[in-house]
From TrEMBL:
Protein name: GTP 3',8-cyclase
SUPFAM superfamilies: Radical SAM enzymes
Cofactor note: Binds 2 [4Fe-4S] clusters. Binds 1 [4Fe-4S] cluster coordinated with 3 cysteines and an exchangeable S-adenosyl-L-methionine and 1 [4Fe-4S] cluster coordinated with 3 cysteines and the GTP-derived substrate.
EC number: 4.1.99.22
Quaternary state and interactors: Monomer and homodimer.
Length: 321
């Protein structure tokens, strides 16, 4: 369906948990209190909301967290979602720690693609950023996902401390069909205190290594990334620049948090409590009407360029990556 600014909203990011097995500095600070399991939407509730969303024209879903694979039987949820009439795509974002052992089962259940978070290929730096010595598991998951037939994208957050790693990370696209995307640090939660690296500076470094790196007009997913290609790379290099190059006029998404809040924009606290509606006995028709209204009222743009206007103060892991 369209919102009030005639944008087609057809994509929903669904957080299934606030928990994660890593402690990335810009996402999940130490000392966070986990939610009680009763506060998290059940799989049945998620599937019901997805079924209703499909009737409104939302046909593509991405499962996020926290780390979605720490929740029991995510394969079962993927199977239920991909089996819904009208569902066009189910994808996943993961840190890759548990992915290798589940990649084949996820693909068989209907998963089509996975985004794997990886900010460095230096083992010591990986441990410093994430709190875990688990780089080998992530690299294994990349290969397992490719072998399972999944489309694979690597997501790297641009940090001042990983600038020296950018060429090594981009080189993952050299001899395999993997896209490597560089994401501008967003001023949400701990990210507001982080030391981000400018995409302009990152592009300049990559251009020194691949002088023919140039923009391509390709749609390679549901999100806002724009891509570049080089004759020396099999995959593409993607850029997601929410702050310096806004893409709000093309935004096609809404977010469902693990607690059931439906958010039309990441920047603002505003949303609707669908957990309360579900558990209060709302009918499918009532849920659809509330969802339709929230989507229609989606804000015109975020306000990341003006931190004083940001009203969302939760950590990214509490919202859904």
């Amino acid at each position: 369906m369209q919102d009030q600014y005639q944008r087609n909203i057809g994509y929903m990011r669904i957080s299934v948990t606030d928990r994660c097995n890593l402690r990335c500095q810009y996402c999940m600070p130490h000392g966070m209190q986990w939610l009680e399991h009763s506060q998290i939407l059940t799989y049945e509730e998620i599937v019901r909301l997805a079924r209703i969303a499909i009737t409104l024209g939302i046909r593509r879903f991405k499962l996020t967290g926290g780390e979605p694979l720490v929740r029991h039987d995510l394969v079962g949820l993927v199977s239920q979602l991909s089996s819904l009439e009208g569902c066009e795509q189910v994808t996943l974002t993961s840190n890759g720690i548990l992915l290798a052992e589940q990649a084949e089962a996820l693909a068989q259940a209907g998963l089509q693609a996975v985004n794997i978070s990886l900010d460095t290929l230096d083992r010591a730096q990986y441990k410093a950023i994430t709190g875990q010595d688990a780089l080998d598991k992530v690299l294994e998951s990349i290969q397992a996902s490719l072998q399972a037939g999944l489309k694979v994208k690597i997501n790297t957050v641009l940090l001042q401390e990983n600038e020296s790693q950018l060429v090594r990370l981009a080189s993952l696209a050299q001899n395999q069909p993997v896209d490597v995307r560089f994401i501008e640090l967003m001023p949400i939660g701990s990210g507001a205190q982080g030391r981000g690296l400018s995409p302009h500076k990152a592009r300049k470094r990559l251009k020194q290594h691949w002088p023919d790196l140039a923009d391509v007009q390709e749609k390679r997913g549901n999100g806002p990334a724009h891509y570049q290609a080089s004759a020396g790379l099999q995959g593409r290099i993607g850029w997601i620049e929410a702050v310096s190059h806004t893409f709000c006029n093309e935004c096609n998404r809404i977010r469902l948090t693990s607690t059931g809040q439906l958010k039309p924009c990441l920047c603002y606290e505003h949303g609707m409590d669908f957990r309360a509606l579900l558990r209060g006995g709302a009918s499918d028709e009532e849920l659809a009407a509330q969802m339709r209204q929230l989507i229609f009222e989606k804000p015109k743009a975020h306000c990341f360029e003006d931190a004083g206007q940001i009203t969302e103060h939760r950590q990214m892991v509490q919202i859904g990556g």
